[in-house]
Amino acid sequence: MIKKIIMLAMVTSFFSSCVVVKEYEKVNINDPDMALSEKKCDRNLSTAHSYREAAVGANGGKTGGGCGCN
Amino acid sequence: MKNQLKNIILFICVFAFAKVSAQTSQDSTKVYKKRVLETTEVDFLSSYYTQSGDNAAVSGGIGTEALTDVTGTIVVAIPLNDDDVLTIDAGVSAYTSASSSNVGPFDGAQPADPFVASSGASSSDVWTNLTASYSHSSDDRNDLWSAKLSVSAEYDYFSLGAGGGYTKLFNEKNTEVSVNGNVYIDTWSAIYPTELRPFFGGNGINNSLFTQNTITGNANYNPIFTPFANEGRNSYSLGFGFSQILHKNVQGSLALDFVQQQGLLSTPFQRVYFADVADSFIDNFQLADAVERLPDARFKVAVGGRLNWYLNETFTVRTFYRYYFDDWGINSHTASIEVPIKLTDKFTLYPSYRFYNQTAADYFAPANENLSTSDFYTSDYDLSEYSANQFGFGVSYTDIFTKAHIWKFGLKSVDLKFYQYDRDTTFSSSIITAGFKFVVD
């Protein structure tokens, strides 16, 4: 497991070596469907998952606490 | 293990700050300062959720899990000035639950049965939440600080939360690193199954519940029951994020979350039936041998990533993967894909698929399989081994010019979605969500 996490950390360093996209080239990146987060209307779905599934976190949502759930 | 995790956190911090120092110089050019949020935005979010299943934790892993929930939330984001935004988030969630009604199944209306809802007060509840968030952006929009406070309450649970975060953008806003922390101070008002209550400070088997009903099976009913001494639950989370634009059409992100929970992590009204204790019944309902007992600490780690690809003007691909593990023995994989399809400049379709699986917690066993000699035990199937498939479909309407108005509110977008979720057990659920976004003129 630890190896996997370290591998992921290494992947991040490769990410940062990519070419720089200029502001005027970010039309597609700025499309709302390209957002690196869940849509607001999916928030109640994520809450349902956090109640009924053991796994939480790493998705920008709730990570634990604030409810009597798992 | 803890030392290794500490090293990983250290590594990521060093990595993040090294990159920040390396890139800051090229972002020093003074740029035009655009308001972070042009005008007040209001989101109305609502959902209708239903579920069914035959493994209710309240009745020890046997019984109906039927539940419906209606949630309504309003989120108001107010620009205080060019740099600062205040967000108020208020929500109410009301549910009716057949399984939680069976905290007290002996209502006399019909024979007690774990597959039949009873009419007790525990059959419904209302959860309310209020969260206030504040964010501040630097002049060059490369630094973002945020803080939040939250309070939520339901009949048997109260929570206070506080959190904060910092985000740094660099590399001409192609790269972003973030760190955030949250603390929740929660308190249970523990409610126990009705048949156990006479066994602590009561008259035990001489209680009217047992004298007015006939106990079948083991007539010498003698459960293990001591109320939980500590009803507090504290949760501490620390999260790290990294995102990168990889190409003018592709971007990705990685997230790493650590959560430490302490206190009452058991649910006080969830029954357990032991293999080494003779079964007792009233009507068709098996009387609790005990309530679940889980350790008073849990450490969770989740690492996840997103990769989004703008294929063309019609199709976008959104993917997500997460690996999760904790020190209760649960390992889990989550993977999802959503393909937004733009039909016109106003309408978009959202087909999606999500896969989830998890291994069982060390303390889980089905009904009548736990041992009374164990330190910890539960028959909560949310902590069992299972896999689940979820299919979703949605439609979105967007009008960037907000032509439609209700008073001073211009309608910017409407989202409607439906999801069907099925485990490889008897559990399934569905949810309909709706979101309306308005901007104030």
Give a written overview of the molecule:
The complex is a heterodimer of chains A (70) and B (441). With 70 residues, chain A is an all-alpha fold. Chain A has 2 helices and no strands. Chain A has helices spanning 2-15, 43-52. Chain B is mainly beta. Helices cover 7% and strands 51% of the residues of chain B. Chain B has 3 helices and 24 strands. In chain B, a hairpin with a 5-residue loop joins β4 (124-137) and β5 (143-154). The chains are: A mainly alpha (70), B mainly beta (441). At the A-B interface, α1 and α2 of A face α1, β1, β2, β5 and β6 of B.
Strands across the major sheet of chain B, in which order? 1-2-3-4-5-6-7-9-10-15-16-17-20-21-23-24
Total helix count of chain B? 3
Q: What would you call the quaternary organization?
A: heterodimer
Helix content of chain A: 25-40%
Give me the Rg of chain B, rounded: 25 Å
Which secondary-structure class do the elements of chain B indicate? mainly beta
Question: H/E element string of chain A?
Answer: HH
Number of strands of chain B: 24
Note the overall shape of chain B.
elongated
Detail the poorly predicted runs of chain A: none
What is the 3D form of chain A?
Answer: flat
